[in-house]
Amino acid sequence: MATAPQNPYSEAGVDTAAGDLAVELMKSAVRRTHGPEVLGGVGGFAGLFDASALLSYTKPLLASSTDGVGTKVAIAQAIDRHDTIGQDLVGMVVDDIVVVGAKPLFMTDYIACGKVVPERIADIVRGIAAGCEATGTALVGGETAEHPGLLGVNDYDVAGAATGIVEADSILGAERVQSGDVVLALASSGAHSNGFSLIRHIVSRAGVTYGADAAEFGRTWGEELLEPTRLYTLPLLRLLERIPGAVHSLSHVTGGGIAANLARVLPVGTWVDVDRSTWSPLPVFRVLADLGGLSLESTEGTWNLGIGFLAVVSADRADAAIEALAEEGIDTWQVGVVRSGALPADGFGDFEQGAKGVDGGAVRLVGAYADTH
């Protein structure tokens, strides 16, 4: 009697049928991100995007970004909740594009895992698709790769890349910034997707489990730490349209913290004192710092401390920008003013000058944090 042929790939630990099921489960969510510009649907070898609309630009510049979520995924895996990580990915990738004033066009994602669990993969991609919907980005393709023997059966990592477009004469950046410009802070929703190696280290050393209730937050530790990254793309694009010329540069506060990321979008020869007294860091940062025996000031190069984005705007339109962003549901406030000339030598702290290979301006944080929580 003949025996059924064996699938050697399956014997090696790769389940192609599970991958196909995952695609079926995520299809409807992905399709919701597709406008008429997307051709071919889901599942092709390459995503197709009709670029005819770019012909209306005088000098179109393409903007691109790629990133991942980092070790925040370990918390999602620990509590088996995977529907928020996708929004974090979109925040890390697409919100970098709006920094130059670009409108996102499309995004692709990549998920590497030890074992394809269709429902888990679908949850991740549904989160990515929801984030793409919220930022006006088409999710045109992706890849799920099963790596048995390299990753554990419950392990995965996610990454993505996006492309946007901006008119050449509308690009934002340090060259537009002038002395006297005002620096506005846009509130974050939490830790976003940076500094989680430190967060996990603190939590582990304290013997806290992610499933444990945290009275300070009114939910479990895992739920608090998985709070999704706030998405700023559409509110900022609408701000640029509503008050043309008001915004000179933008900074996404990710790895490196507030000072380093602001310094990247300031011209050489300028400096800013960011006034800590203008805000109170979110409870999650205060609780984590206390748990780790750290001062908030010592974490400033790691966490966003409640500021997810910074906008450098003309002083005469700062109030209008604050009001416009408030209407978008984003608390915004002034944290500093751009100055030019020699750096002050008053001993309140050291300046960060440029970052990530960019020879930019200088920034330091001064004063004491407000304590309103």
UniProtKB/TrEMBL annotation:
It is found in: Cytoplasm. Residues 178-340 form the PurM-like C-terminal domain. Its EC number is 6.3.3.1. It catalyses: 2-formamido-N(1)-(5-O-phospho-beta-D-ribosyl)acetamidine + ATP = 5-amino-1-(5-phospho-beta-D-ribosyl)imidazole + ADP + phosphate + H(+). Pathway: Purine metabolism; IMP biosynthesis via de novo pathway; 5-amino-1-(5-phospho-D-ribosyl)imidazole from N(2)-formyl-N(1)-(5-phospho-D-ribosyl)glycinamide: step 2/2. Residues 58-166 form the PurM-like N-terminal domain. The keyword Cytoplasm applies. Keywords: ATP-binding, Cytoplasm, Ligase, Nucleotide-binding, Purine biosynthesis. It comes from the Bacteria. HAMAP family: AIRS (MF_00741). Belongs to the AIR synthase family. This is Phosphoribosylformylglycinamidine cyclo-ligase. It comes from Microbacterium flavum.
